[in-house]
């Protein structure tokens, strides 16, 4: 006769268990690694085709005051958890002692008779864990102790028989409720009227009905195995318990391996049990689980995806956008937006609002650039003139000012910033203020850890802001130009969000050169311009012009001879969020246009006009007037004499590199000569003088004769063009 | 359907389909193990499913929350879950269409644990459709549809118990897919 074989249990830990363990570790256990009671459960049988002998723990495991019900056809059993504090503790934990404590518990249950009352105690298990809460990796090792008895494996009297060969199915259907309360019962009575007796009555029952070969002691044991000739692991301790209470050797016993999950696989085993011999101390036991490679080592699971709240935030952000695709814009290309790398030049009011709106669109790569913060205040206080009748203060010279309380050290967060700039708060202003780009990038990550926010500092050199040749200043400027060009090449879209007109010149030129899409936002007091620059990624001719294509003069230093209110942010507070949001939405629309940045300027004739692309029209420029609560869409083609994006300028930079730029910084008029604007200005002056008209306005910015733009652009231009400023 | 109707219908289902249980916090739970039977599943592919049907106060519809895990306990990513659902969808010839693209991870409303869930904003249309067709047990009709997509087959006895109650459910269930074992029925999409 063959020996009875047992199939070991195979643990199956639900992620909800780890989630709960994580919570318990943080809130309850902390650094306490003392054993904690838990519960787990095993199924009685397995539906056809499913793996058998599995053992589950889930989030209910820790609920031990009122033991939760196990799912249908499953039985819950008690266990002990030890969660070690460190990986080293896990490795060096005394596993033999842990096993001994478990065996002692089972043995105590058997000898005290508690196991008869509550047979689930016979399947008590141990679990050793280590939770790495930084990476959400978990190490774990189960022990399902099986007592080794001196009488060894039980030989079978005859091959196992299917249950339903011996009892009619209807009889078992009727017994199911009575068998659900505990994993072990005794069965008595005739085949057609079987009777369920509690395991607690084992001794009484065997005394009243001494088992015989014809009427053996019949045990019904919930069995997680599904094979006909093999029994489930929990049977081992049940047999040990029965042996402990037997007095006659070779007692005939019939074990029904009860598998209600798939009743036809239930099997009946016949064997003979003898009383346990004397046990010195504790019985020996086996039962550490093998890992997935069949080795006696712990198992490991990585749950970063399902437990890390950062991942949860990411999927939730994506879902919100996906809902938009479902309901409104089926062609929304979220992956394209997500992959778009955005460079924000300026981390002030516009920069903060643009960054937040980009993040809401699911953009994950945002680099914020602000001025190199000045650690030391400028040595000399600029001369101050106080004209008697005008209360404004005139500053001459560079923009770095000695601090009035409302002003700022450039590149640092100042006290006036947080109310207008949503990525800063009061604390950022203390101690001289944190560097703006850095503070803004950190806040973005704090809002949404899934964003890759980077901070860079550099001072953008500008035409009209002279650089001393040959010295440290020139070397620094050269380094800044290189850094800016590298940043532009590394990104897909560049936002111009600075506070002076002329600081936009170099980025405009570099973006034209490298075919990067530019979104340009500039504010006046109650008007704004938001525009895209024409970009031709493959070197072709752009469809629309850039910021400077409307100008007939080169950009110059706009900070000299300006009053403080002209230099600092004096705009209606709602203007920046409006302009920033329009800028981001313009980008989203352009990216959804089949031609992308090459899209021509579109302007709907009426609000009801059918849109051409999923996201709608892609205008060139939006000029907004808060005084009238109106936006005007204007456009201009690329201007062949443009000081920033024309071919001749790009060619000069390609050929002469930094020395060309240096010339432009020191002498903006050289740009006018280069592009032919100078020649044109002289011709116009000549014509005007010949006609006796007044002299052309030297600034040219508001000149209606600007040849590049249509009349509408020129008219709109007047209003929005003071711009400058957003600190 | 309101929350009370949800509870009443849920208890009716549980009475006939005892694998489900009612959780006192107010939702139905099913633990299910799926063994790769659909054509494209790798052999030995076992999926442990913890399925919860929770009432959504804001959408006033039942919402499917589920946790799918591999046999080693590792959770399904959203992508894996989407593949799993797609395979079942092909195998069962049922279709819920778009909503399954909105399968995502979210916090379980009662347990506070990350669960996969199908966003409920399409469900009201579906429930309204069942109501228009006069389904006597709209929750069961919806459940059968949804379960087939996660590989849970409605037991034949359970289906027939509901079939006897409503003409709408009756009409649909008799169109049971020929490719299925005789004791199991699915409900093709309306």
From TrEMBL, chain A:
<feature type="domain" description="THIF-type NAD/FAD binding fold">
    <location>
        <begin position="324"/>
        <end position="371"/>
    </location>
</feature>
<dbReference type="InterPro" id="IPR045886">
    <property type="entry name" value="ThiF/MoeB/HesA"/>
</dbReference>
<dbReference type="InterPro" id="IPR000594">
    <property type="entry name" value="ThiF_NAD_FAD-bd"/>
</dbReference>
<feature type="compositionally biased region" description="Low complexity">
    <location>
        <begin position="706"/>
        <end position="715"/>
    </location>
</feature>
<dbReference type="InterPro" id="IPR032197">
    <property type="entry name" value="Atg7_N"/>
</dbReference>
<dbReference type="Pfam" id="PF16420">
    <property type="entry name" value="ATG7_N"/>
</dbReference>
<feature type="domain" description="Ubiquitin-like modifier-activating enzyme Atg7 N-terminal">
    <location>
        <begin position="4"/>
        <end position="306"/>
    </location>
</feature>
<protein>
    <submittedName>
        <fullName>Autophagy-related protein 7</fullName>
    </submittedName>
</protein>
<dbReference type="InterPro" id="IPR035985">
    <property type="entry name" value="Ubiquitin-activating_enz"/>
</dbReference>
<dbReference type="Pfam" id="PF00899">
    <property type="entry name" value="ThiF"/>
</dbReference>
<dbReference type="InterPro" id="IPR042523">
    <property type="entry name" value="Atg7_N_2"/>
</dbReference>
<feature type="region of interest" description="Disordered">
    <location>
        <begin position="697"/>
        <end position="727"/>
    </location>
</feature>
<dbReference type="InterPro" id="IPR042522">
    <property type="entry name" value="Atg7_N_1"/>
</dbReference>
<feature type="domain" description="THIF-type NAD/FAD binding fold">
    <location>
        <begin position="411"/>
        <end position="596"/>
    </location>
</feature>
TrEMBL record, chain B:
<keyword id="KW-0808">Transferase</keyword>
<dbReference type="InterPro" id="IPR007135">
    <property type="entry name" value="Atg3/Atg10"/>
</dbReference>
<feature type="region of interest" description="Disordered">
    <location>
        <begin position="168"/>
        <end position="190"/>
    </location>
</feature>
<dbReference type="Pfam" id="PF03987">
    <property type="entry name" value="Autophagy_act_C"/>
</dbReference>
<comment type="similarity">
    <text>Belongs to the ATG10 family.</text>
</comment>
<keyword id="KW-0072">Autophagy</keyword>
<protein>
    <recommendedName>
        <fullName>Ubiquitin-like-conjugating enzyme ATG10</fullName>
    </recommendedName>
</protein>
<keyword id="KW-0833">Ubl conjugation pathway</keyword>
């Amino acid at each position: 006769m063959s020996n009875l074989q047992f199939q070991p249990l195979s643990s199956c830990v639900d992620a909800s268990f780890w989630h709960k363990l994580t919570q318990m570790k943080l809130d309850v256990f902390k650094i306490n690694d003392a054993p904690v009671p838990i519960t787990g459960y095993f199924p009685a049988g397995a539906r056809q085709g499913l793996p058998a002998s599995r053992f589950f723990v889930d989030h209910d495991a820790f609920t031990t005051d009122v033991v939760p019900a196990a799912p249908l056809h499953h039985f819950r059993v008690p266990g002990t958890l030890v969660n070690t504090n460190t990986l080293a503790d896990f490795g060096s934990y005394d596993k033999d002692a842990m096993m001994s404590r478990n065996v002692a518990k089972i043995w105590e249950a058997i000898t005290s008779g508690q196991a008869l009352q509550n047979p689930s105690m016979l399947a008590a298990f141990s679990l050793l864990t280590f939770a790495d809460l930084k990476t959400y990796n978990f190490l774990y090792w189960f022990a399902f102790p099986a007592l080794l008895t001196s009488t060894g494996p039980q030989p079978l009297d005859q091959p196992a028989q299917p249950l339903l060969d011996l009892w009619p199915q209807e009889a078992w259907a009727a017994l199911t409720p009575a068998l659900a309360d505990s994993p072990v019962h005794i069965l008595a009575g005739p085949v057609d009227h079987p009777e369920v007796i509690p395991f607690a009555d084992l001794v009484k029952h065997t005394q009243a009905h001494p088992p015989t070969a014809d009427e053996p002691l019949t045990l019904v044991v919930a069995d997680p195995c599904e094979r006909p000739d093999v029994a489930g692991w929990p049977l081992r301790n049940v047999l040990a318990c029965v042996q402990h209470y037997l007095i006659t050797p070779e007692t005939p016993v019939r074990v029904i391996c009860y598998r209600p999950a798939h009743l036809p696989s239930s099997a009946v085993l016949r064997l003979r049990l003898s009383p346990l011999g004397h046990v010195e101390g504790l019985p020996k036991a086996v039962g550490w689980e093998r890992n997935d490679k069949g080795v006696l080592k712990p198992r490991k699971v990585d749950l970063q995806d399902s437990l890390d709240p950062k991942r949860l935030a990411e999927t939730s952000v994506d879902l919100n956008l996906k809902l938009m695709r479902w309901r409104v814009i089926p062609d929304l290309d979220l992956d394209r937006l997500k992959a778009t790398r955005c460079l924000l030049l300026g981390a002030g009011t516009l920069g903060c609002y643009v960054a937040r709106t980009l993040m809401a669109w699911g953009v994950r790569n945002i680099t914020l650039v602000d001025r190199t913060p000045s650690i030391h205040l400028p040595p000399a206080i600029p001369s101050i003139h106080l004209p008697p009748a005008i209360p404004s203060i005139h500053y001459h010279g560079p923009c770095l000012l000695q601090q009035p309380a409302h002003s700022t050290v450039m590149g640092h967060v100042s006290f006036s910033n947080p109310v207008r700039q949503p990525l800063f708060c009061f604390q950022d202003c203390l101690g001289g203020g944190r560097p703006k780009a850095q503070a803004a990038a950190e806040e973005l990550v704090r809002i949404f850890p899934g964003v890759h926010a980077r901070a860079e500092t550099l001072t953008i050199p500008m035409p009209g802001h002279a650089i001393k040749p040959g010295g440290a200043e020139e070397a620094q400027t050269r380094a800044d130009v290189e850094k800016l060009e590298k940043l532009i090449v590394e990104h897909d879209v560049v936002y111009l969000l600075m506070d002076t007109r002329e600081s936009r010149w170099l980025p405009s030129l570099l973006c034209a050169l490298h075919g990067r899409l530019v979104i340009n936002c500039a504010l006046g007091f109650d008007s704004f311009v938001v525009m895209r620059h024409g970009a031709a990624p493959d070197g072709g001719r752009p469809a629309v012009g850039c910021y400077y294509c409307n100008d007939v003069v080169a950009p110059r230093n706009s900070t000299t001879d300006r009053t403080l209110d002209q230099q600092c942010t004096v705009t209606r507070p709602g203007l920046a969020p409006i302009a920033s949001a329009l800028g981001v939405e313009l980008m989203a629309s352009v990216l959804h246009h089949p031609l992308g940045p090459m899209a021509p300027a579109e302007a709907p004739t009426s609000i009801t006009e059918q849109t051409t692309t999923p996201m709608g029209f892609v205008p060139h420029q939006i000029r907004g007037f808060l005084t009238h609560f109106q936006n005007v869409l204007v456009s201009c083609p690329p201007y062949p004499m443009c000081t920033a994006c024309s071919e001749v300028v790009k060619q000069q930079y390609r050929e002469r590199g930094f020395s060309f730029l240096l010339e432009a910084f020191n002498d903006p008029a050289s740009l006018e000569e280069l592009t032919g604007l100078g020649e044109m200005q002289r011709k116009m002056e000549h014509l005007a003088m010949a006609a006796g008209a007044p002299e052309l306005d030297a600034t040219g910015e508001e000149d209606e004769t600007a040849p590049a733009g249509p009349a509408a652009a020129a008219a709109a231009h007047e209003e929005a063009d003071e711009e400058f400023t957003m600190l | 359907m309101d929350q009370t109707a949800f509870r009443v219908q849920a208890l009716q289902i549980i009475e006939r389909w005892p694998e489900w249980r009612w959780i006192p916090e107010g939702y139905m739970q099913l633990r299910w193990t799926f063994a790769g039977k659909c054509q494209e599943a790798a052999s030995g592919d076992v999926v442990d499913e913890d399925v919860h049907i929770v009432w959504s106060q804001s959408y006033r519809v039942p919402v499917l929350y589920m946790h799918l895990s591999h046999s080693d306990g590792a959770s399904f990513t959203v992508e894996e879950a989407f593949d799993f659902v797609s395979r079942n969808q092909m195998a069962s010839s049922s279709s819920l269409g778009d909503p399954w693209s909105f399968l995502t991870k979210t916090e379980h409303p009662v347990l506070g644990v990350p669960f996969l869930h199908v966003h409920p904003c399409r469900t009201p249309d579906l429930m309204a459709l069942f109501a228009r067709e006069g389904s006597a047990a709209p929750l069961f009709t919806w459940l059968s549809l949804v379960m087939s997509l996660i590989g849970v087959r409605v037991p034949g006895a359970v289906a027939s118990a509901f079939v006897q109650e409503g003409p709408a459910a009756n009409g649909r269930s008799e169109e049971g897919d020929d490719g299925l074992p005789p004791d199991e029925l699915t409900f093709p999409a309306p």
